[in-house]
Write a sequence for this structure.
């Protein structure tokens, strides 16, 4: 995608949604970190449903450690891989208390050293909690980057690197949110909704998906 088209691509997404935010609910950087760890292979809506009551009483790493793994499992048992995730959340909470003064570090390497935290999770936390210009490449961004031609790559890291290189100011801070939301609600995996896409003319994907029948439009409105 040409530089001018990249700028226009982001400009349109920004105009449509000037202040994008994560759909994960949290009250502080620690809760955000926990929510992002829990969101792996799960929907944001599902994580929010599981964490609303949890986060009413657990706001710090010490409180999470005191809750314990078994009781944490009861809160998050509706989330996929909850046994492994519970173990990781308790372990990362213990690490934050022991190594970081109970504070979430604003450093990618330090975040990735925590149990259950990979590069994508670290990038989300750095961006949302600390305002870093990072690109957290999930399945949606990986798909949108490759499908549109905005940032092609065979691995999430390759797409992240290309996005970092191609994304201009003033779009860098919110870029990954725009791309995630676009992939979740418009540029869907099974059937991209090209007929209502505001950047369709800039996109390399062909052939463009035609409008569905009237009866199918309601179903198409759901996120993937």
């Amino acid at each position: 995608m040409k530089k001018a088209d990249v700028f226009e691509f982001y400009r349109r997404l920004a105009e449509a949604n000037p202040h994008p935010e994560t759909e994960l609910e949290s009250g502080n950087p620690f809760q955000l970190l926990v929510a992002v760890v829990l969101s792996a292979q799960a929907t944001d809506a599902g994580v929010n449903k599981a964490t609303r009551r949890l986060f009413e009483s657990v706001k710090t790493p010490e409180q999470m450690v005191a809750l314990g793994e078994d009781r944490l499992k009861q809160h998050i048992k509706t989330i996929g891989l909850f046994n492994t995730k519970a173990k990781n959340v308790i372990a990362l909470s213990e690490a934050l208390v022991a190594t970081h003064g109970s504070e979430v570090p604003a450093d990618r390497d330090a975040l990735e050293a925590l149990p259950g935290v990979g590069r994508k999770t670290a990038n989300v936390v750095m961006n949302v909690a600390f305002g870093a210009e990072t690109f957290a490449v999930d399945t949606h961004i990986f798909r949108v980057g490759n499908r549109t031609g905005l940032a092609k790559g065979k691995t999430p890291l390759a797409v992240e690197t290309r996005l970092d290189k191609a994304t201009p100011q003033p779009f860098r801070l919110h870029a990954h949110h725009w791309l995630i939301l676009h992939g979740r609600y418009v540029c869907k995996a099974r059937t991209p909704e090209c007929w209502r896409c505001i950047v369709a003319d800039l996109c390399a994907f062909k052939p463009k998906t035609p409008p569905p029948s009237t009866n199918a439009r309601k179903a198409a409105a759901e996120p993937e």
